[in-house]
Amino acid sequence: MNSTPQSETDEVKIVDGIHYHQFDVVIVGAGGAGMRAAIEAGPQAKTAVITKLYPTRSHTGAAQGGMAAALANVEDDNWEWHTFDTVKGGDYLVDQDAAEILAKEAIDAVIDLENMGLPFNRTPEGKIDQRRFGGHTRDHGKAPVRRACYAADRTGHMILQTLFQNCVKLGINFFNEYYVLDLAMTEVDGVKQPSGVVAYELATGTLHVFQAKSIIFATGGFGKIFKTTSNAHTLTGDGVGIIWRKGLPLEDMEFYQFHPTGLAGLGILLTEGARGEGAILRNASGERFMERYAPTIKDLAPRDIVARCMVQEVLDGRGAGPNKDYVYLDCTHLGAEVLETKLPDITEFARTYLGVDPVVEPVPVFPTAHYAMGGIPTNVQAEVLRDNDTVVPGLYAAGECACVSVHGSNRLGTNSLLDINVFGKRAGNAAAAYAKTADFVPLPADPTKEVRELVDMLRNSTGTERLSTIRKELQEEMDRGAQVFRTDESLGNVLKTIHDLRVRYTNIAIQDKGQRYNTDLLEAIELGFLLDLAEVLVFAARNRKESRGGHMRDDYPDRDDEKYMKHTMAYLSGDPHSPDPEDHITLDWKPVVVTNYQPMERKY
Amino acid sequence: MSTPTVEASVPAAAEEHRSFTVTLIIRRFDPEVDDEPRWQDFDVQMYPTDRILDALHQIKWDQDGSLTFRRSCAHGICGSDAMRINGRNRLACKTLIKDLDISKPIYVEAIKGLPLEKDLIVDMEPFFASYRDVQPFLIANSQPGAGKERVQTIADRERFDDTTKCILCAACTSSCPVFWTDGQYFGPAAIVNAHRFIFDSRDEASSVRLDILNDKEGVWRCRTTFNCSEACPRGIQVTKAIAEVKQAIVRGKV
After folding, report:
1. Cis ω on the peptide bond leading into residue B201 (within 30° of 0)?
2. How distant is the Cα of A380 from the closest Cα of chain B, in angstroms?
3. Do the Cβ atoms of A32 and A60 come closer than 8 Å?
4. Is A303 known to be catalytic?
């Protein structure tokens, strides 16, 4: 069969058509965080990676501009400056102990990748070259600094390939195109403990149970709740949704990043590295408008600020194009050589998808939904939390699906490729160490019951709704009411729409009733997760009556540290079909870890 | 209070705002029903700047949910959606309607040379097996100092730049007539990924990979038809890379 690994170590037991496997460590997701974890866990413990895509299809590969580390290869820099920039960039909602780990371990993380074979661009001395990026500064904001290590504008591609290559070298067990649909929890001494995961094999429709001592979620983001997004079609938040449905909390879900430079109307990403290399944002009259908003670092202000300024320019009537609904990214002064050698992919994207040649004309751009700062709460060992303090033994999360929180309310560019490497590695090591000391938790009596019910409900449904219609309406409504600018009214409207869509979702019918490669069924399941996560995001956003980082409330335009310098913790606490989310979502707060940096006004 | 949210439109010349009907003829195969693949027509409303992937999605989402294909990033970087479009291997997400002759139907089928699983999906495992066989990872026994990167000159880094672009989409390998007739042949993608390490100054195992590719199913199978170079959605000079590997074998050194 297509994707079943031929492994001597995988002994499968088949009971009633369901395949049972046993591994010390199971990693869900094969993007950067999952494969970085596998490289650590694989040599130490019997490890499996379960992924709904082939590993090299993961969206880490779409990251372009770079990975931050204060190597100081091209100018003075140090990890303390990087820590400060991360905290300030996150509008002080960052846990500062975690940010310090991120910035300190960044240096080894980059060296690890180079030693594994990653072909970074080089300086004339043969060292790893570095470029500028938004929000990364010298000496606490004095000027932009060259901190982003890069491989042309395909740094994420090279990271994904290098990690996959090293997984091949280590002989890691991959279960490709296996879609994890549930986390098996078993009650032990009155507490529910994770005992394994349940996966649907796309090629055959067979269900698989993977019993494991340690489970790492590295399932990525959920940008597909929005219409205009840089995210892949497959980024539907399945892992985060599974955790939510289990009654475990999600943290800071209201903070979603809109990347300033998506190709207008399409959302395809153009790296911030373009501005790092000197590209300039201009409005319809050609004005470099970022000078007005961020006089010191201008176009290299953090993404939340740049995205808001772009939208503001359009709202004020200074947008470009026939509908005055976008601005320009001007690369023309960089010259063909810089574009072809340092930014070749984005140059091609503009040519292919908009028919615009960045060498000679400015590129129409507009913010695009890009990255979830929130997600599954973890501590700095990547252990998942069941409340503000208590760890779920044997359960880990890393990468975009997790919230450590190193990104606070707004992630700096290049810190996500860093996050997956630093916390992916930590998760792999912690999971392997735990598996060495722990026993298997027994599986629940019927571990696949809920997944069978879900699959049967969707496959046998005779409803009248199309999943694509519901998904489209969700995405359009999220763009309308929960995007760069939000108000109580807009968020309230989105919540009503989500409830209606959720009711209609129970009446969808899929047309493919088969067992083999049923992507119709897959999309229907994914839509269920999208609806769940959109609702949590919007409900938490409505509750946060301030503006901070990626969460901009037009009706509460200021940051309010007294009331809101704390993380949101959301819990599913009732029937998700009840019309009022108050009846099924409980919100709580979690303190921010502050070490060295007291909140200040955020000026650039 | 109203929400000041705006949405950008796709910039396009005026004539590109008009949609029109395009006919796609897709080679379908449902392994649970069909003995043989069959061709099926679909009419879709498309804009010139839409991609073939948009047309496939429109069919799947509005007409026939059972149409099955792989896709993920939708902008040519993940390598999921290689398929034969009007007889040429391309990524559906990088092929714009306006670049095809729309006065005729557009034929879409799965890539050739790999076992057909369902509609546009093939079994990728033989492809990845060849990839694994060339030891596609850095092999270097000498260690740089602890906490240090290996030094590499800009010129040495440039030497293998082209082959680092590969996204393993299989467009090249499944366009190769040798691969169609001899499934044992490593195929262009595996050679490209070997090239990426053979010519990396940091790697110390190029002779091992050259030995592997000197096999009867190795580089000498290549008949230099350039299909692979034409098919590559990343613009890699695949045939040139294969020729460089051949030369390295003949010379016995990189």
Report:
1. no
2. 22
3. yes
4. yes
A68 annotated ligand-binding residue: no
pLDDT band at B147 (very low <50, low <70, confident <90, very high): confident
Question: Does pTM surpass 0.95?
Answer: yes
Instruction: Select A259-367's CATH number: 2.60.260.20, 3.40.50.150, 2.60.120.260, 3.90.700.10.
Output: 3.90.700.10
B150 with B141: CB under 8 angstroms?
Answer: no
Q: CATH number of B124-142+153-251: 2.30.30.90, 1.10.1060.10, 3.30.70.141, 3.10.20.70?
A: 1.10.1060.10
The residue among B21, B45, B33 whose CA lies nearest residue B119 is B33
Phi, psi of B223 (to 5 degrees): -105, 15
The whole-number pLDDT of residue A10 equals 84
Of B72, B131, B153, the CB nearest to A57: B72
pLDDT, one tens digit per residue, over A133-149 is: 999 999 999 999 999 99
Measured between alpha carbons, how far is A29 from A27 in angstroms, rounded to an integer? 6
Say whether domain A13-62+158-256+371-437 belongs to CATH 1.10.1740.10: no
User: A24: closest CA among A295, A202, A152, A210?
Assistant: A210
The answer to whether A308 is a known ligand-binding residue is: no
Q: Are A131 and A66 spatial neighbours (Cβ–Cβ below 8 Å)?
A: yes
pLDDT at B2 over 60: no
A508-565 per-position pLDDT tens digit: 999 999 999 999 999 999 999 999 999 999 999 999 999 999 999 999 999 999 999 9
CATH topology of domain B20-122: Ubiquitin-like (UB roll) (3.10.20)
HEC assignment per residue over A183-217:
EEEEEECCEEEEEEEEEEECCCCCEEEEEEEEEEE
Q: Which chain B residue is nearest to residue A165, measuring alpha carbons? A: B137
Nearest C-alpha in A relative to B58: A468
Output the six-digit token pair for B17. 């705002």
pLDDT for the residue A1: 34
pLDDT at A2 over 50: no
Contacts of B166 (CB under 8 A, 6+ apart): A161, B189, B192, B193, B196, B234, B236
Q: Which residue of A123, A519, A554, A556 is the best one to mutate when testing the B interface, meaning the one whose CB has the most B CBs within 10 A?
A: A519
The DSSP secondary-structure symbol of A37 reads H
- Domain ranges in chain A are 13-62+158-256+371-437, 67-156, 259-367, 448-565
- Select A448-565's CATH number: 1.10.540.10, 1.20.58.100, 1.10.3720.10, 3.40.50.80: 1.20.58.100
- With a cut of 60, say whether residue A349 has pLDDT above it: yes
Closest CB to B157 among A61, A119, A466: A119
